[in-house]
Design goal:
This protein has 396 residues and is an alpha/beta fold. The chain has helices at residues 2-7, 31-44, 57-67, 74-85, 89-103, 113-117, 128-131, 135-165, 181-189, 232-237, 239-246, 262-275, 296-304, 325-335, 353-362, 383-395; strands at residues 48-51, 70-73, 169-175, 206-209, 218-222, 250-256, 283-288, 311-316, 341-349, 364-371, 374-382. A 6-stranded mixed sheet has the order 4-5-3-6-7-8, sandwiched between helices. A 3-stranded antiparallel sheet has the order 9-11-10. Strands 1-2 form a two-stranded parallel sheet.
């Protein structure tokens, strides 16, 4: 929660934990705890109180009256960060839709409270003018946003169909926010996508060519990071983006191996994959940041453990230093089920330079031997290329 607040531009001056068997319907934390929070907040000079839960409209109103400070909940904080990070028109549409769906039930009867609901820490909400309109106009805006996002979905579907026709294999990065996905993306594709240690630094998906030893045409996509308790309507708003994962042949589940809570983070990612009906998609578990001393135990696990269901292999890498990346690319190549890579032996006439050159272009030559005016080649190559070359050899 502190990392989220810092990513949104806040300076954390203190925190309070409330233990209770059930939430208070009026204030979530109870009136006594609310008074305690008021004293701590005013004593530290804070001008904002953030709750690590979703607040109902009445709870939000009651807490602001008791605390006499601006109050936001976890969902509004995440929305505020998303609004800061969205760069593409698509991302901005998705963020505004999520904001309006969140704010719509909180409009009635708030009066001056509307100005406080406008935009979280960074005042990056949909805007005062939109929020002060009536429900009918906001619903109209929501319909327009949905239409715009539907157009984005159809465009993305066309792109995916085009890739499929050209037999592109697709690999997608998934993982908890700040696990190092964008750094790994840059390292694998030799790109320069913006990276940051801030949470949710990547909102807009990026796709680049992924060079494989087998020479197969493959694409790697970088997607928004997941987080615990990610609001369901936010997942729905970003469906157009997350659909990139649905067409992936392989997922790279990236874990920050140095993070003390990496197991809980992975569990949150697995739950969201289930929500998106992607629990059975084949994936490689990539333990990232192994160059950090805190990652030593996770690195050992990656080399000795038996991967769970749906995880084909595990790999230990450092996207920052490049350690383990060559092995990861090999695992990706081997794990892509369509048109698998095989090792095969070929025999040609020494004068058959065309097919010898084809093997060098289409795969990786492991060994070459010459005998009696014949060339014997062992190579790693796709099954389809192997059959095609063998068919040409038989015809010759």
């Amino acid at each position: 929660m502190a990392e989220l607040a810092t990513s949104a531009g806040a300076k954390v001056s203190g925190s309070v934990l409330q233990r209770t068997h059930q939430p208070d319907p009026a204030t979530l934390v109870g009136s006594g705890k609310a008074q305690e929070i008021r004293g701590l907040a005013h004593g530290s000079g804070a001008d904002l109180v953030i709750f690590d839960n979703d607040l109902t409209p009445s709870q939000l109103r009651n807490l602001e009256e008791i605390l006499d400070l601006k109050v936001i909940d976890r969902t509004q904080l995440i929305l505020d960060i998303f609004a800061r990070r969205a760069r593409s028109r698509e991302g901005q549409l998705q963020v505004e839709l999520a904001q309006l769906n969140y704010l719509l039930p909180r409009l009635a009867g708030h009066g001056v409270l509307l100005s406080r609901l406008g935009g979280g820490i960074g005042t990056r909400g949909p805007g005062e003018q939109k929020l002060e309109t009536d429900r009918r106009r906001i619903r109209g805006r929501i319909r327009k946003l949905k239409d715009g996002i539907e157009h984005v979905r159809s465009q993305r579907a066309l792109h995916r169909a085009h890739r499929s026709e050209r037999r592109f294999l697709t690999v997608a990065l998934v993982g908890y926010t700040n696990a190092g996905k964008s750094t790994l993306f840059n390292a694998l594709t030799r790109s320069s996508v913006s990276t940051s240690s801030r949470l949710f630094a990547t909102l807009d998906p990026t796709v680049r060519a992924l060079p494989l030893e087998s020479r197969r045409q493959a694409l790697l996509s970088d997607t928004v990071g997941f987080i615990q308790k990610l609001p369901t309507h936010l997942v729905a708003a970003f469906r157009a983006t997350l659909e990139e994962l649905e067409s992936a042949d392989l997922l790279l589940l990236v874990t920050d191996a140095s993070h003390p809570q990496h197991e809980q983070q992975d569990l949150a990612v697995e739950r969201l994959l289930e929500t998106l009906s992607l629990a059975s998609t084949p994936r490689i578990h990539v333990w990232n940041k192994i160059d950090l001393p805190e990652a030593a135990q996770a690195r050992r696990r990656a080399t000795v453990s038996d991967p769970p269901h749906a995880i084909l292999r595990e790999a230990a890498v450092s996207a920052r230093t490049g350690e383990g990346l060559k092995e990861l690319l090999r695992l990706i190549d081997e794990s892509l089920g369509k048109d698998p890579v095989v090792e095969a032996d070929f025999e040609f006439s020494a004068t058959d330079k065309e097919r010898i050159a084809l093997i060098h272009r289409s795969g990786t030559v492991l060994s070459t031997r010459f005998a009696n005016n014949r060339v014997f080649i062992r190579a790693r190559i796709t099954e389809s290329e192997k059959l095609r070359i063998q068919a040409h050899s038989a015809g010759a």
